[in-house]
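Step 1: inspect the first sequence and its tokens.
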Amino acid sequence: MSAVENALPQFSEVRLEEIRALIARYPHPRSALLPVLHMAQEDFGYLSMDVQTMVAKTLDLHLMAVREVVTFYTMFREKPCGTYLLEVCTNAGCMLNGADDLVRHLCDSLDIKVGQTTDDGMFTVAEVECAGACAGAPVVQINNAYHEKMDAAHMDAFIADAREKGGEK
């Protein structure tokens, strides 16, 4: 094993067993890429280049095959994010129901820009193209949980509650 491979993060043995079982269900290891990326993000918090390289090696894929997937889907993060990831859908339905104003409000009240994390590490604001819940527009995913018909008052209450809890989910 080279020095570079030694420096890479590693899946736990338990996680590797899960991955091997997953790979066995498919005709080609590449078919397990999406679930393995989800596992890696869960284990490491985000998909750094080192984590993506580890995933590529685990599945015997070229790094570019992993990069193509990571950079295509907004659910995969390449940078650390806050304790609470606030993903506001800004597609047409949500935009027409106030999503743009909600993004502006969140950024102003948290004193950050889209894609940034608050200094205390608690909140990251992101825009997503479509949450697939147009009937509940505007939609905000908070750590992958959907919250429909959100407005500034609801978000302010959520943020105040989260701060009161001290960042405990």
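Step 2: inspect the second sequence and its tokens, then contrast the two.
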Amino acid sequence: MTREYQQIDEGLIKELRKISGEKAVIYEDKEQLSAYAKDEAGGEYYAHMPDAVVKPASAEEILSIVKLANKYGIPITPRGAGSGLSGAAVPIYGGIVLSLERMNNIIEIDKTNMVAVVEPGVVTNDLCKRVAEEGLYYAGYPMSVETSFIGGNVATNAGGSKVIKYGNTGHHVLGIETVLGYGDIVEFGGKRRKDSSGYNFINIMVGSEGTLGIFTKIYLNLIPLPGKTVDLLIPFRSLDEAIANVAITIKESSVLPTAVEFIDKISVELGSRYNNTTLPYQEEATAYLIVQFEGRTKKELEEIYEKAGKVSLENGAIDVFIADNRTFSEKIWRIRRNWLEGLKAFDPYVPTGDVVVPTAKIPDIMEFIQKTSKKYSVTIPVAGHAADGNLHPAPMKPQKMPPKEWMKVSEEILKEIALAAARLGGAVSGEHGIGFIKKGLLPVTKKKEFELMKIIKEDFDPNYIMNPGKLF
């Protein structure tokens, strides 16, 4: 549900500038405003200009802005780094984009309690580096570690390559301070790791995509730095063999992998060209797995990867390559990490889907993706976090199809794949979130949950000013 929203005028701009300062408010400057009109989902096709951008520096400033927005009926779109892939940061009703880029302080690294306290605008990689200096590790980062903000990760419950061992972002959130939509600062949780006192509001806020409130402080769990790592690059002649090998590798290796990533042939070909490199058996292999293990000693690692390599060779692998040095490891991960950028270098109109299924259902969803590719006569590269069933299909535009027509066709392709994932016991998003691109699928696949979500939304944000048009 959305409401009738009011227009921003000079009077409101003056009040916003009183709150956050002259330089922290952008108004009537189309060039600057346009930078906040989109995220990584569809670029210009899904862009919508905000009426104003405000860059607060404190929770108190955010609270004052939210109260003003409630008073005047102005929509607010919270924004992190803009690296999202579901349109959650696109201000589709205009109004205020509330950018959290100035709230980028690592408030505290509490080594005793092993907790990091951060503002939402901290770049994920900056936190990882900072805690590593203290011999600690933040394990909740996604693939976009070098660009994404912690606040955005929490807002979408972002995942990544290491979910199989460490869990997605939500597993690492101990507490959240937030300005709720009705205009109050509330803190849920904190540095404690247990709390059986009533409802778990942290879990409600994680993944809420800015529709309930704006995070102002986040408490994150830290662990000791893991030991040494080793990466295995495993090519397969058939996609089915690669996918079938995921569960076998996890089960038979006796040690839970840190990551098991999947990437198909077309993705490797384009990624290799984009990154000016090659992988072994590119002509012969149809799919690759990248498997990472951690171990305390070199000897322990050797035992782990020798067993995992033997299992893979017994189950269809062409070969097993051990990346036990930084150079080879980076060569492997660069192609996977830059997967979407590599595709966009050859097709700027390529969208990326995000579906999750139970691990045992990966062959079924891959079969559906292949059938959908033939149905629409399009190429659909796929990569993903195979160990947790999270795959990213990315249909590529046929050369002769006009971009506007392609936008509709690609939306239909990704919709069909997402609904198929839900039918297989999965969900229409595993880590990117719903935003507005998938909001039509939520009431279809989660009917009763969706009704409960609306009740929470109306209690936390009765005037529907928080990120309207997203999820609902």
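Step 3: confirm your contrast with the notes below.
The chain is about 35% helix and 20% strand. The mean pLDDT is 94.
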